[in-house]
Amino acid sequence: MARPPASSFRCSECGWTTVKWAGRCGECQQWGTVVDVAEQTGIVRALKPVAPSGDRRARPIAEVEVAETPHRPSGIGEFDRVLGGGIVAGAAILLSGEPGVGKSTLLLEVAARAAAGGRRVLYVSAEESAAQVRIRAGRTGALTPELYLAAETDLATILGQVDEVSPDLLVVDSVQTVSSSLSDGLPGQPSQVREVASTLIRIAKERQLPVLIVGHVTKDGTIAGPRLLEHLVDVVCQFEGDRQTSLRFVRALKNRFGPTDEVGCFEMTGDGIAEVPDPSGLFLSRSRAAVSGTCVTVALEGRRALPVEVQALVVESKAPQPRRVVNGVDPSRVAMILAVLERRAGLRRLAEHDVYVSTVGGVRLVEPAADLAIAVAIASAVRDRAVPHELAAFGEISLAGEVRPVTAAKQRSAEASRLGYSAILDVEAGSVRAAVDRAMMASTSPRERELDAAF
């Protein structure tokens, strides 16, 4: 007697199968993606090859016509910089970010600028009511006649709105809150997200209608839903920012129509979101007097060079384990720089002091080019000698105490010179000891002689 086929369960994210249901996939570790699928039986029919005809025939790559993909500016220069010049017709753009960072505010501003430029825009809010979006639009000055607003969570109704309005730009906020009757499950589950995103992208390609889609993120910062969502869209943008500061960054993680190393800078204000075309002074302190424990470096955000001030404070500690508190820099890099300064630069007794290192403006420095500025700031705090205002430092520090070259050194030097930093401390310093000695201002105060003798 033939054994009846047992029901199996398959992960809709990665395809992992199991004979028992599990709340979490054993392969990709995603929750809620294991669903019951009936085992297929019967004869599998082989596909018959179909002869291509007309333009579908394969041709040499040199004979393929090149079609231009013109970018149409959105009205926001920083957003256009990230997209590669503007929004392309038929493009599907996914904007992700943490809750409350300002995704809806940014896209409402993009929709208002596009509508003010003569394009008809349909803004679909699946998270907020129409009245809530109307209040925000009135506060930010986004009330334009060509901007249409709909509060819908059903995909079929959204498609009906598209047929009725015939927009030139569609904004959906967000894809995790829209559901389709063609797919089972609650909104936000992988099957629903896949169905909704596939339908919106198909409409975008068929009608040459650009679509801006908002996507939620998980606790670890990745885009929620199946990874297929990122593969389907043309552009993936990430909206970053710290709730303690008003500065926001937009980065392109994927872009089929432009570069992926551009960064757009914005600032959240009471009237909405504003562009920051030149954020050079956002990460510098306003003090005119020379203060010890500070040094300016030039960091790269995409292709943009930004001056960032690093501050350090060194205090004698009585505790058996001195504190190492950092903000905006990598703690392991700071620990390594402290060891190099004590061993290679002659700054003794650092193990007996509390060390605090921070950046101005809440910016985070993750590249090794900031090593030299951190070392100079710590040495300045230890010796209580101020670094000149016109000095900027960038370079990677090795364990041997050498200053190594960094990428885009000419661009960093040019940006520092443009902002008035006439003294550049970089790889030409040779060693970290020589760099620290060059950065310190000459002084003969008794306090500094006492500190030099102690360290």
From TrEMBL:
<keyword id="KW-0227">DNA damage</keyword>
<keyword id="KW-0863">Zinc-finger</keyword>
<feature type="domain" description="RecA family profile 1">
    <location>
        <begin position="68"/>
        <end position="217"/>
    </location>
</feature>
<keyword id="KW-0067">ATP-binding</keyword>
<feature type="binding site">
    <location>
        <begin position="97"/>
        <end position="104"/>
    </location>
    <ligand>
        <name>ATP</name>
    </ligand>
</feature>
<dbReference type="InterPro" id="IPR041166">
    <property type="entry name" value="Rubredoxin_2"/>
</dbReference>
<dbReference type="GO" id="GO:0000725">
    <property type="term" value="P:recombinational repair"/>
</dbReference>
<keyword id="KW-0234">DNA repair</keyword>
<keyword id="KW-0378">Hydrolase</keyword>
<dbReference type="GO" id="GO:0005524">
    <property type="term" value="F:ATP binding"/>
</dbReference>
<dbReference type="GO" id="GO:0004252">
    <property type="term" value="F:serine-type endopeptidase activity"/>
</dbReference>
<dbReference type="Pfam" id="PF18073">
    <property type="entry name" value="Zn_ribbon_LapB"/>
</dbReference>
<dbReference type="GO" id="GO:0005829">
    <property type="term" value="C:cytosol"/>
</dbReference>
<dbReference type="GO" id="GO:0140664">
    <property type="term" value="F:ATP-dependent DNA damage sensor activity"/>
</dbReference>
<dbReference type="GO" id="GO:0006508">
    <property type="term" value="P:proteolysis"/>
</dbReference>
<dbReference type="InterPro" id="IPR014721">
    <property type="entry name" value="Ribsml_uS5_D2-typ_fold_subgr"/>
</dbReference>
<dbReference type="InterPro" id="IPR020568">
    <property type="entry name" value="Ribosomal_Su5_D2-typ_SF"/>
</dbReference>
<dbReference type="InterPro" id="IPR008269">
    <property type="entry name" value="Lon_proteolytic"/>
</dbReference>
<dbReference type="InterPro" id="IPR020588">
    <property type="entry name" value="RecA_ATP-bd"/>
</dbReference>
<feature type="short sequence motif" description="RadA KNRFG motif">
    <location>
        <begin position="254"/>
        <end position="258"/>
    </location>
</feature>
<keyword id="KW-0547">Nucleotide-binding</keyword>
<dbReference type="GO" id="GO:0004176">
    <property type="term" value="F:ATP-dependent peptidase activity"/>
</dbReference>
<dbReference type="GO" id="GO:0003684">
    <property type="term" value="F:damaged DNA binding"/>
</dbReference>
<dbReference type="Pfam" id="PF13481">
    <property type="entry name" value="AAA_25"/>
</dbReference>
<comment type="similarity">
    <text>Belongs to the RecA family. RadA subfamily.</text>
</comment>
<keyword id="KW-0346">Stress response</keyword>
<dbReference type="InterPro" id="IPR027417">
    <property type="entry name" value="P-loop_NTPase"/>
</dbReference>
<dbReference type="Pfam" id="PF05362">
    <property type="entry name" value="Lon_C"/>
</dbReference>
<keyword id="KW-0479">Metal-binding</keyword>
<keyword id="KW-0238">DNA-binding</keyword>
<dbReference type="GO" id="GO:0008270">
    <property type="term" value="F:zinc ion binding"/>
</dbReference>
<dbReference type="InterPro" id="IPR003593">
    <property type="entry name" value="AAA+_ATPase"/>
</dbReference>
<feature type="region of interest" description="Lon-protease-like">
    <location>
        <begin position="354"/>
        <end position="455"/>
    </location>
</feature>
<protein>
    <recommendedName>
        <fullName>DNA repair protein RadA</fullName>
    </recommendedName>
</protein>
<dbReference type="InterPro" id="IPR004504">
    <property type="entry name" value="DNA_repair_RadA"/>
</dbReference>
<comment type="function">
    <text>DNA-dependent ATPase involved in processing of recombination intermediates, plays a role in repairing DNA breaks. Stimulates the branch migration of RecA-mediated strand transfer reactions, allowing the 3' invading strand to extend heteroduplex DNA faster. Binds ssDNA in the presence of ADP but not other nucleotides, has ATPase activity that is stimulated by ssDNA and various branched DNA structures, but inhibited by SSB. Does not have RecA's homology-searching function.</text>
</comment>
<keyword id="KW-0862">Zinc</keyword>
<comment type="function">
    <text>Plays a role in repairing double-strand DNA breaks, probably involving stabilizing or processing branched DNA or blocked replication forks.</text>
</comment>
